[in-house]
# Entry
Amino acid sequence: MMGVRQRSKLVGVLVQVAALGLGLVIIFPIVYGIFGAFKSAAEFSAFPPTFWPGSFAYTQNFRDALARVPFLRYGLNSLIVATLGTTVRLLFAVLAAFAFAFYNFRFKKALFLVILATMMLPGDTLLVTNYLTVSRLGLLDTYLGMAITSFVGATQMFMLRQSFLTFPRDLRDAGFIDGCGDLRFLATILLPITKPVLVTLFVQSFITMWNAYLWPLLVTNTNQMRTIQVGITMITSFEDTNYHLVLAGVTLSLLPSFLLFLILRHNLHRNMTAGALVG
Amino acid sequence: MTKRILPVFLAFVMLLALGMSAQASSQPTAIVFWHSMSDEAGVLVEKFVKDFNDTIGKEKQITVEAVFQGQYSDATTKLNSVLTAETYDQLPDVMNLDATGKVAYFNSGRAYTLDDALKADAAYDIGQIQPITLNNWEFSGTKLGMPFAASTSIMFYNKTMLDAAGVKAPETFQDIIDISAKLPEKTADGLEVIAYSVVPNTPTLANWLGQLGSDMVNNKNGSEAMATELACIENGALAAFLTQWKAMYDAGALRNVAGTTDQFVAGQLAILTTSSSNITSLLEKIGGAFELGTGYYPKVTPEAHFGATVSGSCLVMFDKQDDARKAAAWELVKYLASPQVQAEFAAATGYVPVNAGAQDVPAYQELVEKHPQYEVPMSQLAITPAEMKSVTVGPAKDFYYAIQDNIAMMLDEGLSVEETVETMAEELGGLLRQYEQANK
Amino acid sequence: MNLPGPRGSLMKKARPYLFILPILLFAIGFIYYPFIKTFLYSFSTVNAKGVITGFAGLENFKYLFSRRDFKTAIENTLRITAINVPVTVVLTMGLALLANKRRSLSPVYETLFTLPMAIAMSAAAMIFKVLLNPTVGYLNHALGLDFGWYQSREYAIYGILMLTVWMGIGFDFLLFLSAFRAVPDQLMEAGTIDGAGAIARFFKIQLPLISPTILFVALTNMVLAMMVSGPVIILTQGGPARSTTTLIFMMYNSGYGSANFSLSACISLVAFALTFAFTLMAFYLEKKRVHYQ
# Structure
């Protein structure tokens, strides 16, 4: 007979092995993509296809990709636009979520739906009119012009509201009675508690904006203002398939978001439970 | 520690934003050139522009800024946005345009057409430009732009495989059927051998209809005025093509699948029809694995003409209401269409040189000598009937996919040729009518 | 900030509106204003330059509903949504349950599970395009399969689904993980003492408590799935033979690609109406079933 403790230990080992296995399956495409960046064109056309590249010292793809695209400059542009867009988006979302979670006012439900419904309007139909607006505002070829259409984050607002709702009402009322102004309550009590959610939303939003292609292309005209996704298109040739180069470009474009993710991940996990999304 | 990371990161980004702002260079005549050339071709275009700035540009006080605007369709979206917003100052001086932007450019009200430029510069000999490529960019009797990257559909085949089977390169659909019967079932790697695999779309169907002496849509395939109806139904050309196509499929010689370059490179597919601009990359990818053969685009029937329409892109100029800029734009266009540039461009990409003079440039001659594959598109264009024009229709993408869908359905669902002709006439005709109504 | 007297109470009343104002202004300026223009397009004849040239009544809708590819697009979109939502919810919830208890290797596999979140859609799509390529791709070879995922009318839609599900794993896993970990230990222990097994505890205690998260994940995935177009544009262009044409892809293709702005306006209205109806349904369910503490 196995003891209870022994049994739970065995379960623990099994769970971890299973989780690791699943984790490896999940990240397989990423690893495959990065490995592909180290393969030569000939390796790609060879049959049967391989998983490991012939040599990790083969960096010609990266050099070619860098020769075709000024990744550093484009990366910096993307960084600025994504950070600007994400920051303002979260700021707006926090304010609105705060109002929806803690106040009662007329048209609350309707206004909430109005903002939420923005998620359901396909972005592509808005392009031309927004181009017109941005050009009338004189924002063509500026970082603000690239970021401005992403200031509305309904998902973010919705999630923050859910998270704010978990905050016990009596505690908030106590805070208000203390003479703690509502903005101060928001800044000093609520936000620190919600930080894990905020960080998660920041990372998610940042990566979406890092990914933007058509809009930044439309509103910028100069090489200096291009973003990283345009750079990737510069590598792909559309009548042909040069997988090795594309994957090198993809790998390069992944680096910054990866880095951000790994840095913030630590933060995002440690006290995630504090602001969890439970009822 | 980690608490600090986000604020520090934010502050860092803000600083970056402050420190960076786009600077424009101000030279006597600065012009902007939008292009859609990526990969190898993109690198070359940037180099051509740099060479221009260092030579003719220096001499004539012109600086060109080349800006990549995404793929052709993205660039056209952008052009449309600028035109709709009427922010004409955002227009470039020269733009690299494919067929998707032709009509938008024609209607832009800011076109400085090739005809306009030729009128202003009587000394330029337009005769050096290959007529068939030039005609491709004509609309309503006006030469809109200068051909730049010209290509045409040709046939590639795995010569090693055909030789081993003891057959010659095919010329007609029937030849493909015959060859298919003699090919081995499996490759050395154990992959199933496929004779031919493609799904027709707008340009390829236009090729095959053109071989039968028929246009796809009226007004000379939409090159003289807006196409309003199909031109291949009553004359039976569509039915004739579909009959042959179905025969090829029923004989097991044809796979109903598009996008098969990889299978060709892997030695699984015997025959590939695609743009001639792929010659260089195909040679590179195949390496020495097998011998690459090129031939004319296969014919529907033995009686049909050889030939295929021109595709690719051209250079158009915009009227920025400044004569110096127009003159500068024209200088750039002339340079990019010069024998030297066209020879170099062709050699590196597989595009067909649009300038006849390119054939006298040693670099190009050496190339053709070393890889005779490069000669096929040139000679095919020379024998392609002049009335074969590429198709310009308003609902371009819907048209493209409706053709693919209907032909794929015919084979997959076993529909008859008559049924397919009927649904195609209805669907494609409907698209044209709808467009005509909205754009009277 | 706290002003005395009636002005103060007015300020107080106005305050929630002030908080909502920024997001609302931008929503109006950059989403609703262009959308209303779209709305007008759907009842007008619009030329290829995007200029309204006349009133069309319901003609555009009639034309849209008569098109064969519209029916296909609706079917494909609903199919993607119907598969994507439950698969994502069950998969990410399962991963979160597996990872719920902190163990020595937790940081490792938690990172692995969340990593897809760090990958941009276009980058992921390019990788999948290579991975699932029948000739040069590794997946078929590794699994001993022999068909083109994105070249087959039957399987292309699953190839698209693989990508959309994969992209959602990271974020949704994180949401479920935090939800499970927020379930108070005492409740679970009380369940154990009452003799409830792991399965009973899951259905009786955990599931009701995390129901808001389930709603949220299902809702966001539903909206994303109804709006899916990016992966389709990159991977299949709606093909082969329209087997992966979604509503938004059709909008993109028939609108921008074919200069039929009134048609694309009609499609986006249909997509919006469907999505909105589903959302209202979800909220109705929320009221009835979802458990808030």
